[in-house]
Amino acid sequence: MTDAALVTTNFPEPVDGRPDLLIIAGEHSGDEHAAVLLADLRRMHPELKVACLGGVELQAAGAQLLYDLTAVSIVGFVEVVRHYRFFKGIFERTLDWIERYQPRHICFVDYPGFNLRLAEQLAARGLSKKGGGAIGLSYYVSPQVWAWKAKRRFKMAALLDRLGVLFPFEVACFADTDLPTEFVGHPFVRASWRPPFRYEAAAPVLLLPGSRSAAVGRIFPLLLAGFRQAKQARPDLKATVVYPSAPIRALLETILQDHADLAASIELIRNGRENLSASAVLMSSGTMSLACALSAIPGAITYRLNPMSYWLGRVLIKVKYIGIANLLLDRPLHPEFIQGAASSGKLSEQLLRALQSREAQEEAAASAAELRELLHAGSDASAAKWLAKGL
Prior knowledge:
With about 400 residues, the protein is α/β, with parallel strands linked by helices. It is about 45% helix and about 15% strand. The protein is built from 16 helices and 15 strands. Strands 3-2-1-4-5-6-7 form a seven-stranded parallel beta sheet, with helices on both faces. It has a six-stranded parallel beta sheet with strand order 11-10-9-13-14-15, sandwiched between helices. It has a two-stranded parallel ribbon with strand order 8-12. Strand 13, helix 11 (about 285-295) and strand 14 (about 300-305) form a beta-alpha-beta unit. Helix 5 crosses helix 6 (about 110-125) and helix 9 packs across helix 14. It is globular, with a radius of gyration of 21 Å.
């Protein structure tokens, strides 16, 4: 849809009358986490009427999809500015829809640049409870205030009714506010979680370039270059590339046209398959990197942003690592190669080490057990139970 078309196009009417719940998730990982939450919630309350701005996973879990936000997900200050009019159109249509159809409750999922601005406008218009209205606001998967924009927590406390966090240490980040904050368990340590990957020494390697088209366009060629150089030492090497959507697959295929020598060694597989075997991984940071860590797959992380976005990030973000597993463990389980530090030679070196070093494989297995303990924290918490209390 073009920018102009979006500005003049309303979202559809709710199919079952006034919704009990509107879920807003702007990225593939948020869509997947929210879909797990919604599936559990509907088992508890099958009568709930749910709409969403999210993606196909939420739709499959039973929500009416108003607009697929995951199809337009981008990251980086420069990229957001470049598409400002487009996102302003989505934002205005969302506000108009909420004001017209008055969902009883809204659950924001991550995506703070959009969701917190929306919460602010809902209060300003007198629609949310904190603004004097009737709509309750829950927030699931907190913005990373422990990494940057720490003062944002006070804004969240002023706008939101409740917060559910994925990591136990995040509760303490909001201790100096009056925002009710609850550790609700991480989806990846649920008893019913089916890991997307499993370690197998003789399996192909994984290449995971991410879920946003702009990032994939920068990162996938780098992963291919690292894979090609490793293949010179290991001519039998094969690779599996996991992608989240048809548009991303089309982009991957376009990029692969410039790497025809690798085509016979690479298989593209849609995300969603369980227990996909892998011997090592080269990947972007993000949710999939945590899944690889929990699956005891050794390898490396790489990331590249628009240069201006990267410079701003370096100024604003104060963390040692960009990989979630590395942050949780406070050590580089998956070594990170960011921006100018990323090269085909370094990625090839790390890929071969993951394939050939018994020490790297043993460290991955031990770290997976440690991560499961950290994320579970002895809790039987459930995101669905947490949200149900708010409803």
